[in-house]
Amino acid sequence: MLAIILIGGQGTRLRPFTCSRPKPLLPLVNRPFLEYQFDTLKAHGIKDVVLCTSYLPGQFKRVFGDGRKHGLRLSYVHEVRPLGTGGAVRNCARLVAGTFLVFNGDILSGIDLTAFLGAHGRGRAEASIALTRVKDPTLYGLVETEPDGRVRSFLEKPSWDEIRTNTINAGAYVFEPGILDLIPEGVAYSLERGLFPRLLELRRRVVGWVSPGYWMDIGTVEKYLQAHLDILSGLALGRKAPGGAGRVPLAGSSGRGRNARPPVKSCGRRVRLGRGITWPEPGGTAVLGDGTSVNDFVRFSGHVCVGPGCVIGRGAMLEDCVVLERTRVGPGASLKRCVVGERCRIGANTAVAAGGAVAGGSVVGPFSAL
After folding, report:
1. What is the span of the domain harbouring residue 129?
2. Same-domain check for residues 154 and 298
3. Same-domain pairing of 307 and 201
4. Which residue in 206, 209, 25, 8 sits closest to 92, CA to CA?
5. pLDDT(339) > 70
6. Does the residue 41 lie in any domain?
7. Residue 227 within a domain
8. Angle (CA) 134 240 130, round 5°
9. For the segment 224-270, what is each residue's pLDDT rounded down to a tens digit?
10. CA atoms within 13 A on the CB side of 282
């Protein structure tokens, strides 16, 4: 079976981190985000994948190549101008030979694709939409279904008095190839606002299937940070560590005895650790990328991810935050519930407060408050 992943967007809601790197390539716990979608596909035996590119397309080929190192067969279809979600799918028509999957390229999900495909077949659907339940339906487009799963209606960002369900489009679809005939070729067209309402008008069979697993749209800085915290805490994807690994002790620690250091999720290669480091309390986690240096008396708390090649200065404090690759955090600096981009220089005794986002390559002077 073929899977098409839509990765053409510019990621404007996630700026400044997407100014020089596409959103699907942003690191999530020190792995390109798209690799998590690859993991899901491979877990269900799907290895033929098309990446629909538009924004900074060359970066995807440099990172993933033909897919062999990931156990996949990757193809690339490029949009010279943005074609929207529907137009991007139509652009892949020559590669489609049967029932196929489509994914939005910015969703972190624990979706059970085998169950989803099974529901599509049982429902004799021409199109199936994965759904997820949310606490605040007014922020999304709702999908209302009949008791048998058939889609009854779509409602974009309703007011509370209009809400009859809390199921929203989860950004994953199963299509029969005949659906492509309803999408105009070579023009911008939306699956959500064009194709799906059109299918209902034509009384074609569209089925909604509620995915019970984890779901997160990483499209904003806040949600990008939350996705990190959810993976590190074990909430996302139903596993306890990146890539399915369990907790591992710090290098040089036996993990036993009164003075044993608490375990961390991952301590990369060639990591240098100073004296008197305070690690997160039980329930918290720290991930240190390859080649990172952590100086004396640094304090980690909550869930922290530090990218490869970083330097964390003496006495710095990091809590529930993400630091991307090759960044230097000065002595005594404090980072709390924030994201710091790649190759930044955070000055001594600087404080980056909750909600902060420091663009890649930024230089922040000492004693600053952001």
Report:
1. 2-222
2. no
3. no
4. 8
5. yes
6. yes
7. no
8. 30
9. 999 999 999 888 765 433 333 233 333 223 233 333 344 455 678 89
10. 2
